[in-house]
Amino acid sequence: MALEIWKVKVRNPLPPRDEPYWGPPLGRGKSLGIRKLRLGDDRWIAKLRDHTGHHKKALGQVTEDFDYDKAREAACEWFKTYESGITDDSYTVEAACKDYVEDRRTERSEACAHDADKRFERTIYGKAFGRMAVVKVWSSDIKKWRRETGLSKSAQNRTMTPLRAALNLAVANRKVTASRVIEWRSVKQHKGVDKRRTLFLDVDQRRKLRDNAIGGADDLVAGMALTGARPGDLVTARVSQYDSRTKSVGFGSKEHPRTVPLSAAAALLFDRLVKDKLPYAYIFTRDDGHPWAHSDWDEPIRDAAEKAGLPKGVCLYTLRHSFITQSLMDGMATLEVARITGTSLAMIEKHYGHLVMDAARTRLELVQLI
Prior knowledge:
Elements: H1 8-11, E1 21-22, E2 30-38, E3 41-50, E4 53-61, H2 68-83, H3 93-107, H4 110-123, H5 128-131, H6 139-148, H7 153-172, H8 181-185, H9 203-212, H10 216-227, H11 231-235, E5 242-243, E6 248-252, E7 257-261, H12 264-274, H13 298-307, H14 316-329, H15 334-341, H16 345-364
Antiparallel strand pairs: 1-2, 2-3, 3-4, 5-6, 6-7
């Protein structure tokens, strides 16, 4: 018999028992009840009956804040979630991120997976936010987590991108309902923080940096300076990706895999690094022979820059920026630079358009027009 369990005067006198007391049906096969375990310990419970049998869900303890109306809302949300095929509401943010990394590894590239995984290692894995169930994550939780990462606003933007993608994948994989998307969609990227890189190292400065780098860090500096690749391209590249006959190397970039030509100096570097290595071995490794992990190179590059007397803020990406800048100043076509470095023409125009104009003006002066 259904009881008027929304009434306190009906609930309180009920004696403790294992079987819940059920209220009126909330729909076909759907019920909300109260379980009386012992005096003063009452708990709301939802029940759903479908073709697979009976399913129950503990909703929480009866309190002034979590009354019948709130419990009814929670029960209806659970019914909807369960009927949509989502039966595990303990799926965590960390689990979603790890699933996303594996998805990138199989669907895109090792470089893409590596980049996301290292960002999550610094900000999600083992953290309180990572242990939260996705169904319980609100936009305020995401904003709080973002503030507490200790990252700059531009770095927060770069980390939010894979996190948002991981949570969207959780929806696509039916780990959480689509109604949750609004929570991370409403967390907007910081505006005006991704400014153009302006730190440029000339040839002498690039050579000084390499002179002061040691071992594997020296190889990375040389690789960056000679290819303009992303650090992730180099540290994930395998011996099999380098073709010594055509003097070219394949990179698994963020956007699309690409094969790029190497200069004679770059080919000499790659020939030395791949010597006596198996096809699946990494080309660029640390001094101990292990693969580079994300940001392992930060400290040795910073130390080398300081010893070389270079400006503060020099990092591996400075060499990528310097490669693009030098190539454009020396007259390479924007399309060639874009393809070699794995970026788009739009990005070249956005960040290096002034160099393109200057180079074009210089070449224009050599044209006899009148």
